[in-house]
Amino acid sequence: SRNDVIRERFGMDPKPEMLLGLAALHIYITVSATRPSQKISLKNVEKEWGLEPFLPPSLLQGIKEKTLRKSLSQQLKAHQTHPSSGTKGSAIQAKLQYLRILNELPTFTGVLFNTVGLDEKQSATTLLVGPRHGISHVIDLKTNLTTVLSEFSKISKIQLFRENQGVARVETSIMDAK
Q1: pTM for this one?
Q2: CB 138 within 8 A of CB 126
Q3: H or E element that contains 44
Q4: Fewer CB within a 10 Å sphere, N or C end of the chain?
Q5: Per residue of the chain (178 residues), what is the pLDDT tens digit?
Q6: Eight-class DSSP state of 123
Q7: Crossing angle of the two packed helices 91-104 and 16-34, in degrees rounded to 10
Q8: In this structure, what are the phi and psi dihedrals at residue 38, rounded to the nearest 5 degrees?
């Protein structure tokens, strides 16, 4: 999931604030796992790893460096102390928070594919493929209205055929039907 965030594999454009929050959690998780006794500071992270492994390129280009550092530092401090007890938050809590944020992204939990009609009878559509939706037809991308075509548990076979440059035909066998 963290690689998907860094490589900007979204079905929508997330807000920079959310990306900064995810980056701060990513930093927190990484430092907690590799240096459990070390205090987490942005300066140490920059010295050891730099910020690039934790931030999507659009965020690095779209926000002033000073603003970026200030926001990340504030969020790192917030993650280091648990609000109710004042104790240090755990890496597991940070991972769960990271996944909760990703789960709120409507189309993050799958990959969108644009289909093309191979003849005039078939129109172009968009498919959403992912663990939550199986294979679904996207009716309206703005409202995330979808209809499930098949759940993964009902799929018995998938075949991929290259039609031409950039176009592939996918045949899916669904338990006793094709």
Answers
A1: 0.58
A2: yes
A3: helix 42-48
A4: C
A5: 787 788 776 656 678 888 899 999 999 999 988 888 878 889 999 999 998 899 988 888 888 889 999 999 998 888 776 555 555 668 888 899 988 888 777 555 677 788 877 666 767 788 888 777 788 888 887 777 888 888 888 888 888 888 888 778 888 888 876 5
A6: P
A7: 150
A8: -80, 140
What DSSP designation does 1 have? Answer: -
The closest alpha carbon to 25, from 48, 55, 69, belongs to: 55
The letter for the amino acid at 11 is G
Token couple for 94: 């940070």
Sorted by where each starts, the structural domains of the chain and their CATH numbers stand as: 2-104 (1.20.80), 111-174 (no CATH)
Q: Does residue 73 contact residue 42 with C-beta atoms inside 8 Å?
A: yes
The CA distance from 121 to 44, in Å, is 60
Is the Cα torsion angle 9, 13, 14, 19 positive or negative in sign?
positive
DSSP string, 50-103: -SGGGS-HHHHHHS-HHHHHHHHHHHHHHHHS-TTT-SPPPHHHHHHHHHHHHH
